[in-house]
């Protein structure tokens, strides 16, 4: 680039000279202003660099690492060092064997204590899984055995257990062949005759079945063809006497030709065995009124009275000479599942309710007006869960079954020691009462007039047995046998003989004699 030559002073015009002088003068003025402003407002010093704290170094936790697969060259080994080579090969083989063992299938019995998963999250101190869920029914597994009988120390109790243990399952037909009712059995009873076992059973749809155990069974034969040819079914009568579930069957203590029944269809009926007719005893005046009956009982002091309970929590009394003059008392806001009268003192009424209570009432002391008219409540006791039935024995004991898996036995002889706060059971027996949806509720039923004078009752067992207990809570027997394919939930004693019947959800009958 050519250098610009400075023009001589003479060649500059007057105008150009003046312009250059003005520029020089202005620059001088600006320089003076800058120096003055720096004196008034000095420039800010540069900020010192911030000192950052050094991060705290976490100490590395030493983790024992297994041998890593790598070559001898990477490990820095001499290619000719055979000893070190062999050492690494052994370590690698050992590691591979351990990894393979972790994935190998484990057989045999495993103890939960030995195989518990390690870690804080999984170690909550559970002692065993059995306590987490209730143990259900175990069909065919006895809970009372011959060994229990042999280990009985009390001689009288042992003799009684041996006696009851001799009862055997009826063998003319197996239970599956004795279909006494078309549907699930809800109620049963024996006819009081001692000449033969005659059993009545009522089912879910109102059919009453009758079975005579004295009838001749099928002939015995060792030849399979003959057995098939000569096979005969048991003779069973069934009668549709109600339109809904039959809840109670009672043979009149005053006339053994009359069988009383109650039903969810709101009626009480009587079957006359001599006349082959079944007539209504009581029903609501309004045909549209629905009063499902849960139970009935007849006092031993008055052949004309029938007491009943309802699913709505009421108890009523009917005089069969004037059924229209019946009386009811609302004793509970919940269902009364069962009740009974004291055989010796029939003015004493025991009720079992869905409200978890058993209550004793005095029918001689009825007071109040209208809907507030009640008998006097003498005592009550609450269970943890609902109470299914309350059954008086001839000796004055009350047996109840409830969904807290207990049978409780109260002794009226102890009532003088009970206070106003409530009655207390004399005996509590553990018993699985979890029937579920498909098995009829388990209810204890006393023998009405035991010949041996021993107060005892029968109750179904969810393991497909019938249990027999004494009034002191001691188990006397567990009745079972081959061919029982369902729970004989509806258990009944013959009034005087040591015969026991059990009805199943499929309408089949089990009989021990």
The poorly predicted ranges are 106-112, 120-134
Q: What proportion of the residues is helical, as a percent range?
A: 10-25%
The CATH C-level class name of the domain at 154-179 and 279-292 and 301-512: Mainly Beta
The major sheet is characterized as: 4 strands, antiparallel
Total of helices: 5
The radius of gyration over CA amounts to 47 Å
Distance between the termini: 139 Å
CATH superfamily of the domain at 154-179 and 279-292 and 301-512: YVTN repeat-like/Quinoprotein amine dehydrogenase
Question: Roughly what fraction of the amino acids lie in strands?
Answer: 25-35%
Shape: elongated
**How many DSSP E strands?**
27
Determine the mean pLDDT: 84
- Strand arrangement within the widest β-sheet reads 1-2-3-4
For this structure, the CATH topology of the domain at 154-179 and 279-292 and 301-512 is Methylamine Dehydrogenase, Chain H
Which structural class matches the secondary elements? alpha+beta
**Per CATH, which architecture of the domain at 154-179 and 279-292 and 301-512?**
7 Propeller
